[in-house]
UniProtKB/TrEMBL annotation:
Residues 1-22 form the signal peptide. InterPro entries: Beta_helix, PbH1, Pectin_lyas_fold, Pectin_lyase_fold/virulence. It comes from Yeosuana aromativorans. Keywords: Signal. It holds the Pfam family Beta_helix. Residues 212-353 form the Right handed beta helix domain. The keyword Signal applies. This is Right handed beta helix domain-containing protein.
Length: 548
């Protein structure tokens, strides 16, 4: 046998090994029949219960009929594709003359999950709608109603799950007219049964879930959280959450616990903590992290968060490290703008714009926390001694509040390492020092936070930073930056027109004393919130004005 022949045989063997004999399956809720083969539109299955029994292989595709409603959920358990040949779940036009592909709708009313992805890898779900408004008969064994659940029971590793162009709406565990007790909203995360948008849960610290993307999805009106990640010992990692619209959630828009390496960008989150339905929780920040590492949150909009506690635009709960919020717009959030709780390390808010955040008043309409534009808390659990965040960097933000808002500020004296520089505090109304009030108020001891660098911030008026805080700007700048359109909701509305006051008047940001880490993304970003380059000394606030 010649060398050429041997090479050809070897090449063909490798080619055969890599070839995937993929199969397409079809499901139609009115034209199908579960006795069919499912291998063509003419032989389509009828139900997702039947489709859930298919032993899907790498490269297989499961197609649901456009503009049709399915009455049961879909379960993907112990099936996996490959990097080159993922398993695909999507909508298809049944009639080739259809010009628009309207997503198939999975109505999983009365069931736990619309789509369950368990012990699977290389799965791609797209162009499907999910809804579940209550139940037909109560099932005590059920604990939730969830649009898409990604979870790891047996396999030690799950990876590459893609959720794109999915719509989730009206997901409630309870039926219409159910009313939650008044005390439920005071619990840390809710204690009852709720509806959720997309959840990732991995309770086993030895199991890993990684390489997950949730992109271009719409989540509207669920009774608790829109997108929620729940790990153990940071066993959920490499997550992308981008270009999603999340509205009217009864709880937070996005929440993550015990995760690492997460990128959250270009999402629009509005009306989190909604109470427009008595089945909703009625409390929630646009986004919050807990026990998480290396999280970059950028270029998002967080607006109109509601609730008697927390309910900031985006906040960093305790036990996190290396969480950076940059280039975000935060507006009209009841709880506030910057909230960093205890035992957090090297976290930052920079180059963000805040508009009328923190308008909530403690004691009014059931509120048990003050709203705050700036809050460093010592809370790290009810049974733990208070310990403020370590090495918090707050710079080049633009904070605007009109005359209707009392701008409240709280800094726990156990905080260690605080940098506040190059910010614009445009406060038309009064400002006030308050105590942190996470379950029980911080103690007023007379001690001050340690390792503070507070310099070179612009204030509209000389009394805008309350003296009672105990720390003060050692070189403040007083004046009016003359915003293009104060009160607007776009970043461009806060372009300063008083260039003489702010242009290149910022200082370079350096490491705080005893900090050898800094920020994961470097202390000196190259661009501002509008994408304008930062050259030389930065300007004050979040926008680097262009010079004609």
């Amino acid at each position: 046998m010649s060398i050429k022949t041997k090479f050809l045989i070897s090449f063909l063997a490798v080619l055969l090994q890599s070839t995937v004999w993929a199969t397409d399956y079809f499901v139609h809720p009115s034209l199908g029949n579960d006795a069919n083969t499912g291998l063509s539109k003419e032989q389509a299955f009828k139900t997702l219960s039947r489709a859930s029994t298919i032993a899907l292989q790498a490269g297989d595709r499961l197609f649901l009929a456009s503009n049709q409603e399915y009455q049961t959920g879909l379960q993907l358990i112990n099936v996996s594709g490959t990097k080159e040949n993922p398993i695909v779940i999507s909508t298809i036009n049944w009639d080739i003359t259809e010009e628009e592909t309207k997503p198939a709708t999975i109505n999983f009313k009365g069931e736990s999950y619309g789509i369950l992805i368990q012990d699977c890898s290389y799965i791609e779900v797209s162009k499907i709608a999910l809804t579940a408004n209550g139940f037909f008969s109560a099932d005590a064994a059920q604990t939730m109603r969830c649009g898409i659940m990604i979870t790891n029971k047996n396999e030690s590793l799950m990876k590459h799950i893609s959720i794109k162009d999915v719509q989730i709406f009206d997901v409630f565990y309870e039926n219409l007219a159910f009313k939650r007790g008044k005390e439920e909203v005071k619990t840390a995360n809710g204690t009852q049964k709720y509806g959720w948008g997309i959840r990732i849960i991995d309770k086993n610290p030895n199991n890993l879930i990684e390489d997950i993307e949730i992109k271009n999805c719409s989540i509207n009106s669920v009774s608790h959280t829109g997108i929620k990640l729940t790990g153990n010992s940071k066993n959920i990692s490499n997550i992308t959450i981008a270009d999603n619209s999340i509205e009217q959630t009864g709880g937070p828009g996005i929440q993550m616990s015990e995760v690492k390496n997460v990128h959250v960008y270009k999402n629009n989150v509005s009306y989190s903590g909604s109470d427009d339905d008595s089945r909703k929780w009625g409390r929630g920040s646009g986004l919050w992290t807990w026990g998480s590492s290396h999280v970059l949150i950028e270029k998002n909009k967080f607006m109109y968060a509601n609730g008697p506690g927390d309910s900031a635009g985006a906040h960093i709960d305790f036990n996190c490290d290396n969480v950076v919020l940059q280039y975000n717009i935060s507006a009209y959030n009841a709880g506030g703008f910057c909230e960093i709780l205890g035992n957090n390390y090297n976290c930052s808010y920079r180059y963000n714009i805040s508009i009328n955040d923190g308008h909530r008043v403690k004691g009014v309409n059931g509120a048990f926390q003050e709203g705050k534009i700036f809050w460093l808390s010592g809370f790290q659990g009810e049974q733990r001694k208070r310990k403020g965040p370590v090495n918090s960097y707050f710079y080049n933000n633009t904070i605007y509040s009109d005359s209707t808002v009392v701008a409240k500020i709280a800094i726990d004296n156990t905080s260690n390492g605080i940098l506040i520089a190059n910010n614009i505090f445009y406060l038309e109304g009064p400002s006030k020092a308050v105590l942190g009030d996470q379950y029980k108020p911080d103690k007023l001891t007379g001690d001050l936070a340690k390792n503070v660098f507070f310099k070179n911030n612009l204030f509209l008026n000389k009394d805008d930073w309350p003296k009672e805080i105990g720390i003060k700007d050692i070189a403040p700048i007083i004046g009016n930056p003359e915003f293009a359109k104060k009160g607007g909701l776009e970043a461009k509305d806060y372009i300063p027109e008083n260039l003489k006051l702010i242009l290149n008047k910022g200082i370079q940001i350096s490491l705080l004393p005893n900090d050898s880490v800094g920020l994961l993304q470097s202390l000196e970003p190259k661009k501002d919130i509008l994408g304008n380059p930062i050259q030389g000394n930065p300007s004050l606030g979040a926008i680097e004005p262009k010079i004609n």
